[in-house]
Amino acid sequence: MSLTLKFLLLLFLSHHVYSGTIVKFLPGFEGPLPFELETGYIGIGEEENIQVFYYFIKSEKNPKEDPLLLWLDGGPGCSSLGGLLFENGPLALKSEVYNGITPSLVSTTYSWTKVAEMANIIYLDQPVGAGFSYSRTPIGKTSDTIEVKRIHDFLQKYYLYFLIECWANDERVREALHVTKGTKGQWNRCNWTIPYDNDIISSVPYHANNSIRGYRSLIYRFEFFFFFLTIGLTFELTLLFNN
Ligand SMILES: *[C@@H]1O[C@H](CO)[C@@H](O)[C@H](O)[C@H]1NC(C)=O
Ligand SMILES: *[C@@H]1O[C@H](CO)[C@@H](O)[C@H](O)[C@H]1NC(C)=O
Question: CATH 3.40.1190.20: does it fit domain 19-176?
Answer without folding.
Answer: no
